[in-house]
Structures are given as structure tokens and as C-alpha cells.
Amino acid sequence: MDAPLTDRRLAPILDKVQNGTRLDRKDGLALFQSDDLPGVGYLADVARARKVGETVYWVRNMHVNYTDICAVGCKFCAFARIKAEDGYVYSHERTVEEILAYPGHLAEVHIVGGCNGKIPWDYYPEMIKQIKAARPETHVKAFTMVELDFFARKFKRSVEDILAELKDVGLDACPGGGAEVFSNRLHSYMFKHKAGAHRWLEVAEICHNNGIKTNATMLFGHIETYEERVVHLDLLRQLQDKTGGFQAFIPLAYHADNNDLEVEHNPSAPDILKTIAVSRLMLDNFEHIKAYWILMGERLAQISLAFGADDIDGTVIQEKIYHRAGASTAMSVTAGRLKQMIKNVGRNPQERDALYGVPEWVGQAKAKIAAKAEVKEPVAELGA
Ligand code: V47
Description:
The chain is built from 15 helices and ten strands. By secondary structure, it is of the alpha/beta class. It has a single domain (34-368), classed as Alpha-Beta Barrel (TIM Barrel), CATH 3.20.20. The strands form two sheets. A seven-stranded parallel β-sheet has the order 2-3-4-5-6-7-8. It has a three-stranded parallel β-sheet with strand order 9-1-10, with helices on one face. Residues 378-384 have low confidence and may be disordered.
């Protein structure tokens, strides 16, 4: 089939994609600047099919935001409460109660909170310990690079030391938040009181070198330029070449409500799709590109699967960060509906855990179905 490209600038990129040649920063920029959205999507779909085939991953997961008190003051954030009296800190009993309330199997708990200077160190390992005691089968994916950097500074310990203790009590992986955009210009304007590009990447490298896989994100669609997006992707790709420790990349579309950034609109659907596609094309050494349905809605997440994505995250009970910033999507979705969303676009749903393994119960359920089929066979024979 001839490639459906209407933008002449995409032709050399098509050659590179077909030959498996790495795209450079200029290619990344040309893709972002192109008005040929179907063409960009086509290229990403080719790259996706080659890298991961027709499988789309999903997970039975929930979010725990253990505190919303945060002194960092990021301009785009609607979640944080600066004054302690306006916010909360979960007791471990509360966290365990929420986790036990999840119906059925739970593969992953995603734990993120504010940088809250009033919480003592012991709180963090104890939280993981209690979660593992309550739900031993559940993977704990906890703490962004920003939180790990905050812990290291606050408790005057190395990131290596902190990770060793957290791993010991059951930390399985880290989420990809807090990266925002790797740009000094935006760091000093939007989030100057937390780790910038250099430190975020340094902490990720330490995680990878110490056996902890992480994700990566990019917050886009506010005041960043296309050039800054391309640099962000390239820096992630360089670190992934070095460590191979990133699992998934999640482009996070900006939500404009209830924050201090002077941007009142959210990125358009074409921009969201194009950013998913360029991420797949530039991040040739990342296995998974996630279309996080909570922030783009179920329908756009389905379309993203034709623009390079191969993961739609999960059931996500209790999402708070985007809903405080104006998200009008549901707060959670059932496992059945997630699978249907994937099947409806002709792809194969694959349930996963936080490390992209197949949870034990999936194998058990398949064995049960196979055993039932075996019992039925002799009856079929009798009837024949
Ligand atoms: O770090 C904050 C972003 C992130 C806004 O690793 C905002 O699997 C848009 O990182 N508009 C947290 N974005 C969410 C996150 C994440 C989500 C799903 C999966 C994974 C994963 C990670 O949300 C923050 C920040 O970059 N954010 N405020 C806002 N107004």
C-alpha cells in the first residue's frame, strides 16, 4: 500500500521509519510542524506495529495520593495545597482501607503525593510495608523522581540509600511524573522549586542502575515550544540508550482549570494525537507509549491506538490530579470496559502488572476455562 502522506517533508522520514533508521531532532520538529495528521499517525502506526505488534496493555490498578500538601508551588498544578490546614495526609489505616476496598484482584497501586516537609521518613517505607501485608500480590509503583529527590534532600541521604530501603520493603517500580518539560526556561518559570531536567534524569538513572524500572512523562500543550518537546524526547532517548530502565512514556495533555498558569485552553485533539505519534517515532528505544484515558477520554484513547500507543493504563480508581484540574472523564472504569475499548478497535487486550508481566490470576483463569472445555469434550463426542 502506498503511504498516505500529503506533506512532502514526511517522505524522508517515511524512508527512515521503513529502514529502522533513528530519527533526529530535525525530523521530530518536522513531524510536530506538519499539518498532515493522518500521515504522522500512519508513520507512528508502522513503528508501533513493528515494535510491539497488535497487543494493547491494560492493568487493574488504583491511585493513592497520600498527601496533597506540597510546598513546591508548580504553576500548572491544581492538586497541591500549600497550607497544611487546607490539605490532608493519609494515615496508613486509610491507605490500607482504600486498597482493600478494591474489588477483586489488584495488579498495581500507583502512589504519588506532594512534597510535604511535615512527613517523617518512616512514613514512606511503613506505607509500602502495610500495603504489601494487605495485598501481597499487588505491585507497588511509587514516588516520582521529584519525590525521591525531595526525600534525599530533606532526609540528607543519597538516592541510592533511600531506594535500597524502599526496595527492601517492596517497592517494585516508579511512576513517570514530575518531568514536565526538560527546559531551563520553563523550569525557572513554572516549577523552579523542584528537580529540573538534569536532576530528574540523574535520579532516573540511579533508579535504573539500582534495578528499579521507571516511567517517563512530558506535560505538553501549555507554553512549551515544539523545539522543547523534541529536546525532551531526545534526552529521554539518550538515557534509555544508556540504561534501558524506562518502561513506558506517557505524554500528559495539560488541563487548564484551577491553577496559576496563564493558559486557559487545553491542547486540541489533533495536538494530543500528534504528540502520541511523535513520541512513538522519536522514542524508538521505548517499548510502551501510553494513552492515559483519564486525561484524554475513552474515545480519544481508542483513536490514539492508531497513532502509536500500545497501552491505555488501567481501571484507575480514585484519580485526583486531573479531576482537580478540570478533567470531565470518569474517575475509574471497569476491567470489562477497558478490554472492550481495545477490542472495539481491532486490537488484542493483554492484562499486565506494573512490570508488564502477566498477573498470576490471568494464567489461573485461562487454566480454569481450559479445564471446563476438557470436561465438555466427551459429551460432544457422545453427541456426534
Ligand atoms: O507530574 C499536574 C501532571 C503528573 C497537571 O507513570 C498535570 O504510569 C495536566 O505522572 N494538567 C502526574 N497535567 C500524573 C503522572 C502519571 C499519570 C498516569 C500514569 C503515570 C505512570 C504517571 O500530572 C504530574 C504533572 O506532570 N499534571 N497538573 C495539569 N493541570
